[in-house]
Amino acid sequence: MIVRILGEGQYRLDDEAFATADEIDDRVQAAAEAGDDAAFQAALTELVDAIQRLGAPLPVDDLEGSDAIVPGHGTTLDEARELLSSEGLIPN
Amino acid sequence: MGLMGRFTTIVKAKASKALDKAEDPRETLDYSYEKQLEMLQKVRRGVADVATSKKRLELQAAKLEQSVEKLDGQARMALQQNREDLARGALERKKGVQLQLQSIDQQREQLQTEQEKLIVAEQRMTAKVEAFRTRKETIKAQYTAAEAQTKIGEAVTGVSEEMADVGMAIERAENKTETMRARAGAIDELIESGALTDLTDGRDSIDRELEALTASSGVDAELAKMKAELGPGAPPADQLESGESKG
């Protein structure tokens, strides 16, 4: 699986690593739903760190598309909401 | 759906928007390449814009630093003349200016971060665009209609995603600089009105008194300096003149 971290490049993860990321992702989503910005940022940091630790960075001139995409380090809950809602999941 | 799923959907949607479905698949390649070059221009402009905003904050900070020094000097002078009330007024203002300075410093750091992100984004985009250009030429040279769609799809997907990513980074930086421009404009107005840098335009009684103090102590200092130059017991001016012509 290839995961893109917005603003930080793409990483190749094996199935086990991706499962780990997916688990953390559930917590990110839970924090987002609870509207808990501190918990959101903590979980997101954990997620992005795990992707970078467990994955291998793709060369910058690689043209492969990603299987999953996450926001980068330091994204706040407000910023994440803005990114998601600005287009309402419909391409502009 | 987790957050990852949501972001994947939205970025993919943005990426596929960058893809134009042309009659001849080969046109898709050229069209995408054109868009990529435009995006590179955009990200470079973004870097320049952030740098300009940063420069503006730095100029403001320099002006406010001067104001802090000036207020500090005025407070000292007031204390020397036993005007603690005036000294307090000046120090209160100094505190206010220092708070502004702190906020400017934080904003400057934020812009610095955005600038660094955009520079990295530009480097990554440049590498992808160059790889795409090479791939594009290869696909065109070996073009067979049957394979074209897949190959073109593969080549365009990754780079379109990068474009969506870079586009979001630019948007984010633009939002930040926009907010800061508004704040910087407000501070500029304060500076121009003299509220932050100039306490001597007689806006209220503390200002006027501080100004008077500054002026009178300036005169005192000059007098003292002249006395020192002339030496103790210097003769009146006319005698001094004739004394000089003698010797």
What features would you describe in this structure?
The complex is a heterodimer of chains A (92) and B (247). Chain A is of the alpha+beta class and 92 residues long. Chain A has one domain. Helix content of chain A is 51%, strand content 14%. In chain A, helix 1 runs antiparallel to helix 2. The radius of gyration of chain A is 13 Å and the shape is globular. With 247 residues, chain B is an all-alpha fold. Helix content of chain B is 87%, strand content 0%. Chain B has helices spanning 3-17, 25-80, 84-141, 145-193, 205-230, 237-246. In chain B, helix 2 (25-80) runs antiparallel to helix 3 and helix 3 packs antiparallel against helix 4. The radius of gyration of chain B is 33 Å and the shape is rod-shaped. Chain A binds chain B through residues 3-4, 6-7, 9, 21-22, 25-26, 28-29, 32, 44, 47, 60-71, 79-80, 83-84, 87, 89-92, and chain B through 1-17, 117, 120-121, 123-124, 127-128, 130-132, 135, 154-155, 157-161, 165, 168-169, 172.
Could you name the key traits of this structure?
heterodimer, A: 92 residues, alpha+beta, four-stranded mixed sheet, 3 helices, 14% strand, disordered C terminus, B: 247 residues, mainly alpha, 6 helices, 87% helix, rod-shaped
Please write out the topology.
The complex is a heterodimer of chains A (92) and B (247).
Chain A: E1 2-5, E2 9-12, H1 15-34, H2 37-54, E3 56-57, E4 68-70, H3 77-85
Parallel strand pairs in A: 1-4
Antiparallel strand pairs in A: 1-2, 2-3
Helix pairs in contact in A: 1-2
Chain B: H1 3-17, H2 25-80, H3 84-141, H4 145-193, H5 205-230, H6 237-246
Helix pairs in contact in B: 1-4, 2-3, 2-4, 3-4
